[in-house]
Inorganic pyrophosphatase (Roseivirga spongicola), 179 residues
Amino acid sequence: MIDKNNPWHKVPVGEDAPDIVNGIIEIPQNTRAKYELDKETGLLKMDRVIYSSMYYPHNYGFIPQTYCDDNDPLDILVLSQISIVPMCLVEAKVIGVMRMLDGGEMDDKIIAVANNDMSVKHFNDISELPAHYIKEMRNFFEDYKKLENKTVAVEEFQDAQTAKDIIRKSIADYNKKFQ
C-alpha cells in the first residue's frame, strides 16, 4: 500500500512529460549534505554528509511517479543559476541523461534545466552544454564515493531523446508497480 501524501506518489510527473517534468529537489547545488526522501514518511532525511570534500555541482532530486530498477524514483539533476531549496517542486526541461553504474547497479541521472530560469532555459540538448559542465558532473559522480570505498562508473552522457525514453519507461514501470 502506498502513502498518497508522500511526494513521490502525490505529485504528478508533469503534464508535458517526458519533455518537461516535475523535479522534486532533495539536495541543493554546492552542498555536501546527502538528503533523500524517506519512503515511509515522505519527509526529507539527512542520509549522510558525503565523505569527500566535494560539493554537489547541480541541484539533485527525483521525478515523482517514476520507478527504476534500484527501487527508487528516477534521479534528476536540475541545472540553474541558483541553489534550489530542498523539497521545492521545479518544472524541469529534459536535455539528456548521464548513464552510470553505482555499485554495479544501473543508476541513470536525468539532466535537465530549470524551465523558469532564463539563464539555462535556452538549452535543449546536452550537446549544447559547455564541456566543463559535463566534466564537473562526471568528476563529481566518479569520485564522491571513493572515500566510502564504493565504486561508481559513469558511462557516456546521452541526448534528450534517450533521456525521454528512459523517463517513459520509468513512468510505465511506476504504473505497473503501484497502480
